[in-house]
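Give me a protein, keeping tokens residue-aligned:
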Amino acid sequence: MSVTITQKHTEKAAQELVKSEQERANDERLANPVLPDAILHEAVPERLDNLTRTLEVADASDFRCLSQIAILATLGFSLIIEPSESNQPAQLTLSCMDASIAIRPVMERFQTVVITSGTLSPLEMYPKILDFDPAVMASLTMTLARPCLSPLVVARGNDQHVIDELMKSKLLFIETNDALETSVALEKYVDACDSGRGACLFSVARGKVSEGIDFSHHLGRCVIMLGIPYVYTESRILRARLEYLRDQFAIKENDFLTFDAMRHTAQCMGRALRGKTDYGLMIFADKRFSRQDKRGKLPRWMQEYLETASTNLSIDEAVQLARRWLTLMAQPFTKADQLGISLLTSDMLNPKNMKKFEKVVEHVD
């Protein structure tokens, strides 16, 4: 048996090998959840424009969406492919990895920018992820005429069917995925509080109710955080962002996850205190909140009132402390009690007298 291999057969085999290598490379690229760095560093938008001009495309508007994606891909965005576990098609997501993109127009347009919030903690994280050099960084304490917040860490709980017992005396409302149901639940919750009966509202951290609505005075006398609101760590989008932060800013994954979780914790806990005359309990129902690496990332005004003796409580101990504190808050509180402390008098506005308030500011290098 003889086999004759011609040059034509050799060329065809070589072409098949090249085609196979190209297909394998394409498969590897599609399997990679993040767009390769080499593509991100190329002038993708300009090359796309050059291609449309070279091909003499009559209507370039057909490629407008592709052009916008190309621009975003060079500005700290990543293309992420999330394969589906069922018969549903895979999800293609263009996600922003660089948070500084959103604030950059503000920084470029204005000479002086002041960023202020009650939950900017820890301060040193924000210049990194927003990519700016702060002229002054300061953490301000709260000038309160009375201890109107009482943070407690309940580290030892029990399974005594608390919900069943609670429903015997209080109405329970739950935030759901349905916006209409949540709106009705919120309305009825307010009605129950206004009537004097009181109620409990269960909401999800990072949601609209827990971070976007004010519960002033009797609408939010106690906020309980059940667990630490960590983001879903198996998300491909999150993993891509963690990799970006590690490579660009040397931010460790655990540091960012804890920072993000405690930032949302502070947002939720802040619902209990919405003004100088307001007061509220803040219950951290997870023993991990007693650790310094968690407590240290809370805002300074929360840390000042979170005593070491209140960081490892049982439910019974927390109840006793809460009763004692609520009795104190029930005492008469007038405007005269606030003058000179949480309210400035005309004499205190004198420039000479204002110097003593400089001690309130803690500068951070």
